[in-house]
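Hello again, I could really use a second opinion on something today. Take your time with it, there's no hurry, and the full record follows here:

___
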Amino acid sequence: DRGAHPRDPPVTAVREDAAALDHARALTRRVHIGALYTNGRDHAEVVKTDALGHIHLRDLRTGQRFGRGIHAFRRDWWRVR
């Protein structure tokens, strides 16, 4: 074993990154295509989700598409029932 490269992240950082990614994936799986969400001012429809935790939305008033990371999405948007 020659050892780790000096620029390689420590093993614990790699494990933490993997755990954060697993968490983002689990949260993203709960978001369904076609579901309606609001942030209290706007209404949007989920049009796509990415495996890495990015939610693609379409504003219902303007038709404009935009995206949010899963953590910002969960903080700012809630489902309309």
Notes: Strands lie at 36-38, 43-50, 54-59, 65-69, 78-79. The longest strand covers residues 43-50. The CA atoms of residues 31 and 49 lie 8 Å apart.
